[in-house]
Amino acid sequence: MTVTHHVRVHRSEESLPREQQLAWKIAEVAADAVEVEADVVDMIINRIIDNASVAAASLTRAPIVAARAQALAHPVSHGGAGSTIFGLPSRSPFDILSSPEWAAWANGVAVRELDYHDTFLAAEYSHPGDNIPPILAVAQHVRADGRALVRGIATGYEIQMDLVRAICLHRHKIDHVAHLGPSAAAGIGTLLGLDVATISQAVAQALHTTTATRQSRKGEISTWKAHAPAFAGKMAVEAVDRAMRGQTSPAPIYEGEDGVIAWMLDGQTAAYEVPLPAAGEAKRAILDSYTKEHSAEYQAQAWIDLARRLHGAHPELGDPENIARVVLHSSHHTHHVIGSGANDPQKYDPTASRETLDHSIPYIFTVALQDGGWHHVDSYTPERAGRADTVALWQKVITAEDAEWTRRYHSEDPDEKAFGGRVEIELVDGRTIVEEIAVADAHPLGARPFAREHYIAKFRLLAAPVLEPAEIERFLELVQRLPELTADEVREINITARRGLIELDAAPKGLF
After folding, report:
1. Is 118:60 a contact under the CB 8 Å cutoff?
2. What angle, 0 to 180 degrees and rounded to 10, lies between the N-to-C axes of helices 38-57 and 146-166?
3. Where is the MmgE/PrpD N-terminal domain (predicted)?
4. Within a domain: residue 141?
5. At 492, is the secondary structure helix, strand, or coil?
6. What is the pLDDT of residues 226-248, one digit of tens each?
7. Judgement on whether residues 325 and 234 belong to the same structural domain of the protein
8. Do residues 200 and 313 share a domain?
9. What is the DSSP track for 144-190?
10. 418 belongs to a structural domain
């Protein structure tokens, strides 16, 4: 049975024993040796495949090239066997390894670059698959087996998603990775079998070092957007190392008079109700998350599906000469974060960065409406964004907040929780076309819910240009045996690029 923890700010003169602090409660969940249930194990396998898919598609992109070069400048540390880096050989005698915190960094960027893996949206939003790179890196470094890795990942998902259910960050312009640092630290704690006291210190340190502003997702969005979760994962690894050495962290980090809640979130009078599994309760949160069929912000997923449906039913809508105005009625979040309500002129700029276009629902809906689909590369090229008929139609697309769609976005009832909306298209001939969609086709309640075969198909599609066929099959066969893997096999949870694809000497030079 889930236990709801009342979390509030405490003045310095108030006594708040460490056992009553949220960091300790999180650590208790992490230290609970409950077994992972079969359906959760299956979903963890799906998400490892999903992460590898998007990492494969990103191997030659500039942020990954830079992060990989940084990782390679840091050799394996003395405390373990080292960790693999996506794209590079990892099987003797040609293995190329790095220290676990830097492998978490490089692999975290690769997973996050295309904004194409799993999501969970509640009071806050998140990509809980970001927990996997740091937990996997540590597992490889300490030579953990598949069962231990599964348990660590289940904890990472559970803690991040429980924090996301309860504590809103974006209202205060704090980036969502502030929930990822603690969850990854907790997951690593589970993996290593650490005690509650040690994990709680790591959780507090990880939170303390991963709170940052949302400017990384505002205006002209930079390449740091992909680096932010990787940084949180790297900090989690370092926080665990520090805690294992007996070092303490700011406390109470959430509830303190000068803590995160008091000064970064809802303030001195704030209180939150945080749900966490009770002792002995299985960690099942991952089953409430959902992945992406399309490489775009999650709130765009359903809109892409609706646009491609309209493309087939009304091909005339792709011509801007036929359109007077397009209004996307959706939730507060969609309108203010990726819609015209953000007041970011860059969301209508055909020269904007890929990261910015990924957070522009007017652009995404326009291209999907004209093309009848979405491609993780072609839909973002400067040539595609700058096409004259696209720019003309794009400028006619606006968003509007709708109270009912906002309510459904925040609903705790999974049967009515929705991330779509209603489109009203006014044509110049006086007609109006109105359609709506609640969830993406790939959502568990959507038209075509993602199952194992869809994750595998996504991996094959994205990996085909960069991996040899034998490497694709090797990875898929290995990861689907995850709970049975030996420590040696866990070290093989990696993908090796085709010969010549990655040119290490061509990487940009830096300080290291």
Report:
1. no
2. 90
3. 20-271
4. yes
5. coil
6. 899 999 999 999 999 999 999 99
7. no
8. no
9. --HHHHHHHHHHHHHHHHHHHHH---GGGTB-GGGTHHHHHHHHHHH
10. yes
pTM higher than 0.70 for the full model?
A: yes
> How does 255-265 read in b/e, with b if 16+ C-beta sit within 10 Å?
bbeebbbbebb
Count the Cβ atoms, other than its own, within 10 Å of residue 512: 10
Residue 54 parent element (H or E) = helix 38-57
Q: How high is the pLDDT of residue 133?
A: 98
Q: Which pLDDT value is given to residue 125?
A: 87
8 sits in which H/E element: strand 2-8
CATH number assigned to the domain comprising residue 411 = 3.30.1330.120
- The per-residue pLDDT for 355 is 85
- Count how many residues are written for the chain: 512
Give a yes or no: residue 463 inside a domain: no
Say if residue 362 is preceded by a cis peptide, omega within 30 of 0.
Answer: no
Number of domains in the chain: 2
Contacts of 245 (CB under 8 A, 6+ apart): none
User: Quick one: 282 and 393 in the same domain?
Assistant: no
Number of alpha carbons in the 13 Å side-chain half-sphere of residue 343: 0
Nearest to 131 by CA among 165, 99, 158: 158
Cα 336 to Cα 365: distance, rounded to the nearest angstrom: 16
- Give the pair of three-digit tokens for residue 27: 């650590």
Residues 380 and 322 in one domain: yes
296/72 Cα distance (integer angstroms): 29
> 284 with 371, same domain?
no
Last residue of a domain, one of 411, 437, 463: 437
Report in angstroms the alpha-carbon separations of 85 from 116, 359, 449.
Answer: 19, 28, 31
Amino acid at 460: R
Answer yes or no: do 181 and 330 share one domain.
Answer: no
CATH code, domain with 205: 1.10.4100.10
Q: Evaluate whether residue 263 is within a structural domain.
A: no
| Angle 67-70-76 from CA coordinates, rounded to 5° | 120
What is the residue type of 63?
A: P
- Ranges of the chain with pLDDT below 70: 92
DSSP state of 480: T
Residue 71 and residue 159 in one domain: yes
- pLDDT tens readout for residues 22-37: 999 999 999 999 999 9
The amino acid sitting at 270 is A
Q: Do 167 and 124 form a contact (C-beta atoms < 8 A)?
A: yes
Q: Which domain holds residue 406?
A: 298-437
Cα–Cα distances (Å) from 494 to 87, 91, 384, in that order, read 7, 10, 33
Q: Please give the distance of CA 466 from its chain centroid, rounded to a whole number.
A: 23
Cα distance between residue 196 and residue 203, in whole Å: 10
My answer on whether 85 and 221 are in the same domain is: yes
DSSP notation for 415-448: TT--S-EEEEEEETTS-EEEEEESS-TTSTTSSS
Rounded to 5°, angle at Cα 228 from 385 and 7: 125
Q: Which of 376, 407, 437 is the last residue of a domain?
A: 437
Q: What is the DSSP string of 318-341?
A: G-GGGEEEEEEEE-HHIIIIISGG
Burial label, 212 (beta-carbon count in 10 A; 0-12, 13-18, 19+): middle
